[in-house]
Amino acid sequence: MTLFRVFRGTREGGELKEYQVAAGEGMVVLDAVHAIQAEQAPDLAVRWNCKAGKCGSCSAEINGKPKLMCMTRMSDYAPDETITVTPMKAFPVIKDLVTDVSWNYEVNKRIPAFQPRKPDAPDGTWRMYQYEIERPQEFRKCIECFLCQDVCHVLRAHDKHEQFMGPAMLVRAALYEMHPLDEADRRDHLRHEGGIGFCNITKCCTEVCPESITITDNAIIPLKERVVDANYDPLAALWRKLTG
Amino acid sequence: MAASDVKSHSYDVVVIGAGGAGLRAAIEASAQKAKVALVCKSLLGKAHTVMAEGGAAAALGNVMSEDNWRVHFRDTMRGGKMHNNWRMAQIHAQEAPDRINELEAWGALFDRTPDGKINQRPFGGHTYSRLAHVGDRTGLEMIRVLQDKGVHSGIDVHMECTIVKLFVVGGKIAGALGYFRETGRFVLFKTGAIVIATGGIGKAWQITSNSWEYTGDGHALAYEAGAELIDMEFVQFHPTGMVWPPSVRGILVTEGVRGEGGVLKNSKGERFMFRYMPDMFKGDFAETEAESDAWVKGDRKKNRRPPELLTRDVVAKAITKEIAEGRGSPHGGVFLDIASKQSPDYIKKKLPSMYHQFKELAQVDITKDPMEIGPTTHYMMGGVKVDAETQESTVPGLYAAGEVGGGMHGANRLGGNSLSDLLVFGRRAGQYAAGKRGAPAAIPDAEVEQTMREALAPFERNGENPFAVQSALQAVMQRNAGIIRDKGGLETALAELEKLKTRAQKVGITGSREYNPGWHTAIDLRSLLVVSEATARAALERTESRGGHTRSDYPDSDDKQAREQIVIKKEGDRMGVRRETQPPIPADLLALIKESV
User: Which of B260, B298, B438, B589 has the most CB atoms lying inside 10 A of its own CB?
Assistant: First the structure.
């Protein structure tokens, strides 16, 4: 038997409750949560869908680390270790392990939409080459688990949800910015509403990404460079230099 | 609770379900200037489409220029064992290329051919390389593209909202009642046009690739509203699900593994699929390992496809037979081996999520070792009977698209034909639903109040845990209405389902209405019971074996039943079952199907 401590509560508060679960071969933490739900606490709230790391629904914090419950094996922990499961900290709790992630959808809605160039061929299709799309394809691996948002200290510790779009949504913006067909310009959005300057490249997001997207190096840093380039005016800089 | 206390919304079109079909329907209805609501049981972007792996079938002819809609149509009809709604199969084959190209215009990034076009991979039952894909995560790509297109189309999305009833007033759709998972509060949608796009029913079985959502809600809602269901006996058991460890049993292993050259072997190391060639496909597939290997290496003009790429029904039955005859793997499956056919780099590039899934969940490195796999419940061919052109059901104002719609795939669906089906018929459903606009009839308060009382009843009882009833139902269906069926087993299933209906009416819930999975399961059980009974009744009625429906007491296909459909319709308190003959296939199309390529 493994001892689980699971957060039970709502927006108003709650507590860790203890449950004993029989560990079976190959079991993941989500299996244990389901076992608790089926046998001990049918009202235990948890999100899940695919159970194979593809949908990004079952995000939570396991012994304090942001993880997908379906991809965290119980055998990763010592047999006598207590496993503590709590909801993501960067978002308001709805109930138990379920958090209100609607903010992410609002932020995504405000990213300027994809705008393709005119089709390349008379039949209305485009030509793109594999090497051109490898980078945006990496960003498309994002399963919207929001674990990177959860771990990001700008959101988690400083609560800057109003001013900073967070790594997941920067990845989304980067996808379209680096899409070979796209002609929209998102630099102004990233600089102002998106608050890209808040990111100080601690790379915590990259570390927790279950899809191994190189969030900081491949998405955020190139976006920061684009934003800086757009706002760098060499004539103004020269004028400042000359006039002191 | 009084109906007047329920929050209500008025829309031109309400789409239930936000997978590929629902999103595509909502986008189209919105493009037709309709006021659209998209209602989904999970968060947006988590629907089952996200798990589709292999690709979307469309005769683009980018890889093999010989391909065209006629060959795609022929493959679909033959794969469906001639039972398909021919007009749907034709529309699908003709329109799929436009729907795929349209996704590219909306930002999709499909893998490319060397000359910069959308690449296409081979798949089971498809004569030519036909599946537009993104590695083995095509569904994720599709849902994200549609999701982002959708959020910029002015659609109202109501997430984590489960619909419990459709209202029909004066013979026409008038609205729907649902509840939000978060608060447990009810919401009333007033509308004259509803598109159901709720997917399948796979949660009625124990071993399944389907998530908790797949409880047949759309099938049951339509049935309760008086719509007809067809082909409910045709359930697709995908040949390759994970079998070990127990906690991952049933999780899908993409057919793309076989498309990329993976081979099936039994415990004796024998490539058994060569022994299971059905007469219909003789001559279309490789007859030796050498020919098959040459095809995998890329010489596709002179060599024929490996037998592992036979249709899913054939492969699933072959695997079941190998296991039954004692040639299975240690954990009750067979072996799927790609390591000996492709390089590690190629496997990681083409099948990254399979590599990851086996490494993380089973501690198997598929670039070195074979996978252990076995059949898993995957897809419902049957569903709401719809008009091929408009997707309208037999209830005016009620449309169905995607997996919940019936007819397109006949007795067996080809891999890759689902993602394209979602797009083709999702668009049509949205288009015609938007054309239906007009003020709906008022829904009587008493009906709304009655529906709420029934939904809340489990809170009033100190009864059985709903999870226990759900798992008992899954055991019954697995045992008696699985891959191989017979009269006795199906009759047992029906008798057991009767008992489960009584148990379901007595389940009790503790806790509040806020995000209470026990309550959600109690409500989903009502849908599961309807679709399970429909499947068992239709399976009992069809006295032959065809595609996904196999009867050990009627092992052969019966030509007389090929175009006969089992129709299920609610008749008072009982489930009516009748046979109907489908319209004949026009001579020119019939000639296409029979022609060899």
Answer: B260
Q: How far apart are CA B413 and CA B313, in angstroms?
A: 9
Looking at this predicted complex, what is its ipTM? 0.94
Nearest CA to B406 out of B538, B523, B594 is that of B538
**C-alpha distance from A237 to closest chain B C-alpha (Å):** 37
- Contact residues, chain A, for B511 at CB < 8 Å: 42-43
Q: Where are the alpha helices (DSSP H) in B341-399?
A: 344-350, 352-362
Tokens read off for B313: 């029904």
pLDDT of residue A244: 62
Distance set, CA B469 to CA A17, B492, B503 (Å): 26, 17, 7
Q: How many Å apart are CA B176 and CA B191, to the nearest integer?
A: 8
**Rounded-to-integer distance, Cα B582 and Cα B577, Å:** 16
Give me the domains of chain B, ranges plus CATH numbers.
239-377 (3.90.700.10), 448-560 (1.20.58.100)
Shortest CA distance from A118: residue in chain B: B105
| Cα A49 from Cα A70, distance rounded (Å) | 10
pLDDT at B326: 96
Question: A-chain residues within 8 Å CB-CB of B248?
Answer: 26, 51-52
SS3 for B229-285 is: EECCCCEEEEEEEECCCHHHCCCECCCHHHHCCCEEECCCCCCHHHHHCCHHHCCCE
Each residue of B107-161: pLDDT tens digit?
Answer: 999 999 999 999 999 999 999 999 999 998 999 999 999 999 999 999 999 999 9
- For tokens 């590690």, the residue is B344
Q: How far is CA A27 from CA A69, A76, B241, B361, in A?
A: 11, 10, 17, 9
Q: Take residue A211 and report the two structure tokens written for it.
A: 């899809």
Omega of the bond prior to A112 within 30 degrees of 0, cis?
no
* Digit-coded pLDDT (tens) for A21-62: 998 888 999 999 999 999 999 999 999 999 999 999 999 999
Say which residue the tokens 């079998």 belong to: B243
Alpha helices in B32-153 (DSSP H): 69-79, 86-105, 138-151
Write the DSSP string, A183-225.
Answer: ----HHHHHTTS-GGG-----HHHHH-TT---IIIIIIHHHHH
**B360 contacts in A (CB within 8 Å)?**
53, 71, 73
Calpha distance B46→A56 (Å, rounded)? 8
Q: Decide: B199 and B382 in contact? Cβ < 8 Å.
A: no
Helix (H) or strand (E) holding B250: none
Nearest to A155 by CA among A209, A92, A226: A92
With CA atoms as reference, the chain A residue closest to B101 would be: A125
State pLDDT tens for residues B508-527: 999 999 999 999 999 999 99
* Residues of B classed as catalytic: 238, 258
SS3 B232: coil
Selection from B471, B472, B463 nearest residue B507 by Cα:
B463
What are residue B386's DSSP bridge partners?
A: none
- Biggest CA pair distance of chain A: 76
CB contact under 8 A, B134 and A137: yes
Which residues in B lie closer than 8 A to residue A10 (C-beta atoms)? 514
Mean pLDDT score of chain B? 96
A55 and B109 within 8 Å at the Cβ level: the answer is no
Residue of chain A nearest B114, judged by CA positions: A129
Please tell me the distance in Å from A153's CA to the nearest CA on chain B.
25
Q: Buried (b) or exposed (e) across B340-370, using 16+ Cβ within 10 A?
A: ebbeeeebbebbbbbbbbbebbbebebbeeb
Q: Are B419 and B55 in contact (CB under 8 A)?
A: yes
C-alpha gyration radius of chain A:
22
Mutant choice from B48, B63, B109 vs A, greatest count of A C-beta within 10 A: B109
Q: To which residue do tokens 């299709």 refer?
A: A125
3-state secondary structure of B571: strand
The minimum CA-CA distance between B65 and chain A, rounded to whole Å, is 16
